[in-house]
């Protein structure tokens, strides 16, 4: 890509051949995950190659090429699925016997949330409760706990990351 951006037409041709082959795999996996036919693959590849060509000046040469290309491919796949009217639909009637009553689900969720919050260190728990449950701002929680707004935001981020990990671990 670096040589192609400097005007080397042969390098650009080789790049397009290599990228097209790689994109086919990316597009096929994305289409399969969305339950779409393999026949749509070439459309996604061509749209991605065109976008790559038009946006090649936005690539930062100090960065790897693949993440930049993958982002373009992901956006083109999403655009393609939207144009084709992709919707992810699960018929709830097929699973009605496994669903809990709404009251039980809400009670279970509140209990799960309290148990998960109880697994956090005190400061993290108080920050999550203040912002997420009580609706306070980071500035208000910081003033109450003697912390800067930035420290509250960092601690909140860490607490939420910890909660997500606990949730994933408990569900597996």
Automatic annotation (TrEMBL):
The keyword Transcription regulation applies. This is Sigma-70 family RNA polymerase sigma factor. Keywords: DNA-binding, Sigma factor, Transcription, Transcription regulation. Residues 15-85 form the RNA polymerase sigma-70 region domain. The keyword rRNA-binding does not apply. It comes from the Bacteria. Residues 113-163 form the RNA polymerase sigma factor 70 region 4 type domain. CDD domains: Sigma70_r4. PANTHER family: ECF RNA POLYMERASE SIGMA FACTOR SIGD, RNA POLYMERASE ECF-TYPE SIGMA FACTO.
